[in-house]
Design goal:
By secondary structure, the chain is mainly alpha-helical. Helices cover about 70% and strands about 0% of the residues. α1 (about 5-25) runs antiparallel to α2, α1 crosses α3 (about 40-60) and α3 packs parallel to α7. The protein is globular. The chain starts with 6 loop residues before the first helix and ends in a 10-residue tail after the last helix.
């Protein structure tokens, strides 16, 4: 994966990692604060980075299962509107009406960001377990810092 040199993309990279980590850590408060008052440009950048990360995980892990039960439990941490939109999409996939990408494509931009973060978190969870999945993200963010990309905001 190409490393970013655009400050806006660096911000998006960190927000994508922090949102995925918040879902993995089951931290509802952080889920709610990573993307407070996002503009459309930020959402597009975060979504782009999440999709790149999600695709890289598929290349690395193959195609681990994403049980609806885990998706439901993880989506329950999302803002209510996002949770409802995500679960509608997931249940369409479970009924084999569409693939996940097609199911989330029609969602609002903020819901799409959360949906891809939720799916990424569940992929990591199913492949590694919660502790190792969090360690995977921690290793990735340490690498960001080593490459000279410090987090451009403070998380609470």
């Amino acid at each position: 994966m190409t490393e970013p040199d655009d400050p806006w993309l660096i911000d998006a990279m960190w927000r994508a990692a922090d949102l995925t980590r918040a879902y993995l850590a089951q931290n509802r408060g952080q889920v709610a604060t990573v993307l407070t008052d996002p503009d459309t440009g930020l959402l597009e950048r975060v979504l782009t980075w999440l999709v790149l990360e999600h695709d890289a995980l598929f290349d690395e892990l193959g195609e681990p299962s994403m049980p609806v039960r885990e998706l439901d439990a993880t989506a329950a941490l999302a803002p209510l509107e996002t949770e409802l939109a995500m679960m509608t999409a997931v249940h369409r996939v479970a009924r084999r009406e569409s693939g996940l990408a097609a199911a989330v494509e029609g969602l609002r931009p903020l819901d799409r960001v959360h949906a891809v973060a939720i799916c990424t978190a569940v992929l990591l969870l199913e492949a590694h377990g919660r502790t190792a999945a969090l360690q995977h993200l921690n290793t990735e963010t340490v690498r960001y810092e080593q490459l000279g990309y410090p987090r451009p905001y403070t998380i609470t």
